[in-house]
Design a protein that fits this description.
By secondary structure, the chain is mostly helical. The chain is built from 8 helices and 3 strands. It has a 3-stranded antiparallel beta sheet, sandwiched between helices. Bound molecules: manganese (II) ion.
């Protein structure tokens, strides 16, 4: 059986500092994400979902879980979902930049759908700060290219709502506690410096 691999980071572990420290990267990528990869590889042994891409695995595990409540599918859904989420999350950052902002078509769509980049940031941070417990705040596109912000609990991904995920901030405590402790809003506000808008734009167009 082909195993899932821990994604390689497209930057050095210290490159996102001080917004995200190399210590946080070491735990978040090297321990938490690696743990989800190991869990999923274990669950997939002998599973009918083995060999599927992550997106299909998430959608299928969700349907099977709803259909028959098969034990193991819940674990599959959570671990595959967390790998999908974290692969998108870690791939979307670059070294901090002053005056970092969206580009081209995505910049236009943000102004069209939220009024301004500033208004979008306020709304996105608010949704991240008010998500109760663990989860993710997402910017996604619907099938017509309209932009939406959603809160997703635990390991959920917007593909489960038929949306195309573009940008996400992880609000699990493991994403920020070493650097920001309980100050989740401060962490969210700082993340704008490291968003690689070229990556987000590629996901949109
Ligand atoms: Mn995480």
């Amino acid at each position: 059986m082909e195993k899932f691999q821990l994604m390689a980071l497209p930057y050095a572990p210290e490159a996102l500092g001080p917004v995200i420290s190399k210590e946080t990267i070491a735990f978040h990528h090297g321990k938490h994400l690696a743990g989800y990869v190991n869990n999923l590889n274990g669950l997939l042994e002998g599973s009918p979902l083995s060999g599927l891409p992550l997106e299909e695995m998430v959608l299928k595990a969700e349907r099977l879980r709803v259909g028959d409540g098969t034990s193991g599918m819940g674990g599959m859904l959570n671990n595959a979902g967390q790998i999908l989420n974290h692969n998108l999350y870690f791939a979307q950052f670059a070294a901090p930049k002053a005056d970092n902002k969206p580009i081209r078509k995505l910049a236009e769509a943000i102004v069209r759908d939220f009024g301004s980049f500033e208004a979008f940031k306020v709304e996105f941070q608010k949704k991240g700060a008010t998500l109760f417990g663990s989860g993710w705040v997402w910017l996604s596109a619907d099938k017509d290219g309209n932009l939406v912000i959603t809160q997703e609990p635990n390991a959920a991904n917007p593909i489960q709502k038929g949306l195309k995920p573009l940008l996400t901030f992880d609000v699990w405590e493991h994403a920020y506690y070493l650097d920001y402790q309980n100050r989740r809003p401060d962490h969210l506000a700082a993340l704008w410096q490291i968003v690689d808008w070229a990556v987000i734009e590629q996901r949109y167009v």
